[in-house]
Amino acid sequence: MRAVVFSEFGAVPEVRAVPDPEPAPDGVVVAVAATGVCRSDWHAWRGHDPDVALPHVPGHELAGRIVEVGSRVRGWQPGMRVTVPFVCACGACPQCATGNQQICDNQFQPGFTGWGSFAEFVALDHAEVNLVALPEGFEPAEVAALGCRFGTAYRAVLRQGGLRAGEFVAVHGCGGAGLSAVLIAVAAGARVIAVDPSPEARELAKRMGAELAIDGEDAADVIRTFTGGGAHLSLDCAGLPVTCANSVASLRKRGRHVQVGLLPPELGVPPIPMHRVIADELRILGSHGLQAHEYPGMLDFVARAGIDLGQLISRRIGLGEAPAALSEMDEPVPARAGVTIVEPG
């Protein structure tokens, strides 16, 4: 098969022929129809993830069809259209037993702990725990856009963040995860303030329903003034020390901060005002993906709310263009807003 491979962290990846994957006894092989280019893939390529072993194939936001099934897999057949969460769970650890597969103790992450979906085929383990059947009406590119970014934002806004209709929500960073958070919060009845240095990203956030879109300068003061005291819920979807600190600083008393963007130590440690956390009884939460058993509810939410997932997609490219798309993420302000989708076929 053809796949995007890098053999050195930070070196430009190349598309080359590699052996086709084989399914584990409890796994499947999926022909990749579409896969998203995510900043998490950039972190893996840049060497920020200790689970990545070289040489490596990135990619974790995928949709496709099953082409091979392991000997112990029941209920799944070749030809079925499927996706998976970016955290593939083991199904047997204490976290899985309590329904928290998104923080599985023995998790497998395509594109991180194993080769991923920037390829024509990808092997996925523990199929019966992790596969999600795609209902009709969702095309592969839209499902890839759901990927880790929309799923993580869904959990961050509605589960971890506990959003209630009418609340003010601040979204810091309007890449794929941030724009997803805007869509979800607006659909749930929130009043949304979007923060991003890119004029294109701010304009896209406003088209998706944000009441206010600002560039990040004095963001916390602007948000606290606009909302009359601060956001009820604020999310850092960029994963930078400054956006994390601004998110916490923009909260009203008893507000909730949810950290969505990765914060690798290599990028610095955010200055969290813990005196405010104590005095204002703020809540600091993380959000790490979405369990497979939550996907049907998320897909139903998307359908009932009439969310157009196509709004998230800024461009579709072939496998040969994926290395350049990954390299573009070196820029602090992305060249374009929205989600880039790779279609390997």
TrEMBL record:
Q: Which domain of life is it from?
A: Bacteria
Which keywords does this chain's UniProt record carry? Answer: Metal-binding, Oxidoreductase, Zinc
* InterPro entries the UniProt entry points to: ADH-like_C, ADH-like_N, ADH_Zn_CS, ER, GroES-like_sf, NAD(P)-bd_dom_sf, Zn_alcohol_dh
| Coiled coil found in the keyword field | no
Q: Which residues form the Enoyl reductase (ER) domain?
A: 10-333
- Report the GO molecular function annotations: oxidoreductase activity; zinc ion binding
A Pfam family of this chain: ADH_N
Please list the cofactors this protein needs: Zn(2+)
Recorded hits in CDD domains, A to Z, give: Zn_ADH6 (cd08260)
User: SMART domains this protein is in?
Assistant: PKS_ER
In its keyword annotation, does this UniProt entry include Oxidoreductase?
yes
Q: Which family does this protein fall into?
A: Belongs to the zinc-containing alcohol dehydrogenase family.
Name the record gives this protein: Zinc-dependent alcohol dehydrogenase family protein
| Organism annotation | Amycolatopsis acidicola
